Amino acid sequence: MAKIPPPLWLLAEVTHSCPLQCPYCSNPLQLVPKKDELDTEGWLKVLHQARKMGAAQLGFSGGEPLVRKDLEVLIAEARKLGYYSNLITSGVGMDAARVEKFRELGLDHIQVSFQADDATLNDYLAGTHAFQHKLDMARAVKASGYPMVLCFVIHRQNTDRVAQMLDLAAELQADYVELATTQFEGWALANRDHLLPTLEQVREAERVAHHYQEKLKGKMKIYYVVPDYYENRPKACVAGWGKVFLAVAPDGLVLPCHSARSLPNLELHNVRDHDLAWIWYESKAFNYFRGEDWMKEPCRTCDEREKDFGGCHCQAFKLTGDPTNADPTCAKSPHHHLIEQAIDTTRLNPNSSKPLLFRKRQNNSNLS
Amino acid sequence: MSVDFKAVPRLAGGYRFQWEEAQQNHVLLYPEGMVQLSDTAAAVLSLCDGKRTVEAIVAQLEEDYETEGLDEDVTQFLMEAEAQGWVKYG
Ligand code: SF4
Ligand code: SF4
User: Fold this and answer.
1) What's the count of helices (H) and strands (E) in chain A, helices before strands?
2) Whose alpha carbon is nearest atom 8 of ligand 2?
3) What are the residue boundaries of the structural domains of chain B, listed by start?
4) How far is the C-alpha of A318 from the C-alpha of A323, rounded, in Å?
5) Order of strands across the sheet with B33-36?
6) What ligand is nearest to the CA atom of residue A17?
7) Do B14 and A108 touch (CB under 8 A)?
8) What pairing do the DSSP bridges indicate for beta strands A245-248 and A254-255?
9) Which of A113, A182, A257, A285 is most deeply buried (CB count within 10 A of its CB)?
10) Which of B14, B21, B27 sits opposite A109 (nearest CB)?
11) Which ligand 2 atom is the nearest neighbour of the CA of A311?
């Protein structure tokens, strides 16, 4: 096999705690309890080891990273080590003074996520009153000299409001807006009957996004990607297993992709027991889907395999029972009918009778 | 688009230029992204400090590389860098 490249991207999921309860959350259903989280020393060790290996981009995410009281310590160390650090947040847990502090400590970028463009829908989806505070925080971020980067996670319940979301972003003078399509993992998968948009919705959202991209060219950059369910081809998950991306879960488990915990027979390791470099280069888990030896048909002989590497293994496992199958969002997959069925269900039955499952620890047990 | 020799280029907000030991390359880092830079690109960007004019950057590079007539290369790159949003003026 070719030489293994070093990781460039470290995602530090510092906690699974979150004051919000978004039903589209891609965190695993079994959230890591607070008592099992790495302590400050543990995270500092992760930052040092990954930087030494070559990671340059660092994302603080979760859960809600602002819940960690030691986030300031981690940010300062990240700057010292030469990371470009990104804070991926709901905005709940900071105020203008904390933003200012982050800036002083050398945090490079803050992305604030919104559930919708208006208070009612936003707060319904978040399961808490957060909208007004988010507006304030988006402004505070910009006021302290950062670019304003907003993220709207879109799905069936809010995708008809993409125009209003972009109007709001323009009014706030956002620099970048990401219209992130829900990835059906974790809580989002459990809620798929409520969240998967219809084909008409997807096409309309695409049209609106393109219209605004033209209209606001040079002022606001808008990212919109069609959901993989409607693309007939999978996404190149984490740009290839064990190639550039490395995630560390709240409890120190090291993951090749942030939902890898759900895969069977994958012996994952913890930074408490092993060096990151060993885990990245030597561990079986990280080598499992490296290269192409693991592939079966149709991927094995497909001329697009260098483009998407067979897609998302977690999605393949969740939907087909075997992670070495082609991602079923691919039209060439023999399991593609599973995707078509989900799409049909959405079209024929847009109001699911199942209750919407909000993401909170008590709800773990309501499943299965 | 053209480049004014008296203008003063600087890195756009949110961008960071640095040497990456593991990649043996200069890179430009920005929100959730990174580009590897060619040696020429790195040489020009390292001088986009918000103080030097384009003219001064050309002169500095010509001195460093002991050559002449780099204005074409530099303005070419700066136009591209501006189009990419890496560099701003004033
Ligand atoms: S998606 Fe919502 S619930 Fe999940 S971590 Fe982010 S803010 Fe919290
Ligand atoms: S068959 Fe496999 S490699 Fe080919 S496009 Fe589909 S998922 Fe990708």
Assistant:
1) 14, 9
2) A310
3) 39-84
4) 8
5) B16-20, B25-30, B33-36
6) 1
7) yes
8) antiparallel
9) A182
10) B14
11) 7
Query: How many angstroms separate the CA atoms of A83 and B62, rounded?
Result: 32
DSSP character string of A232-255: SS---GGGSTTTSEEEE-TTSBEE
Block means of pLDDT (10 residues each) for chain A, 368 residues, are 86 93 88 94 98 96 94 98 95 93 96 90 86 92 91 92 94 92 88 89 93 92 88 87 94 92 90 97 93 89 90 90 92 92 81 80 60
Is A84's CB within 8 Å of B20's CB?
no
Other residues' Cβ atoms within 10 Å of the Cβ of residue B12? 18
Cis peptide leading into residue A106 (ω within 30°)? no
User: Which of A56, A82, A147 comes nearest B31 by C-beta?
Assistant: A147
**pTM of the model as a whole:** 0.90
CA distance A142 to chain B (A): 11
d(CA A332, CA A360): 37
With CB atoms and an 8 Å threshold, state whether B32 touches A109: yes
Which of A10, A60, A84 is the best mutation test for B, with the most CBs of B within 10 A?
A: A84
ipTM exceeding 0.90, yes/no: no
In this predicted model, what pLDDT tens digit does every residue of B19-47 receive, in sequence order?
999 889 999 999 878 999 999 899 999 99
pLDDT tens for each residue of B42-82: 999 999 999 999 999 999 999 999 888 889 999 999 999 99
Nearest ligand 1 atom to alpha carbon A27: 4
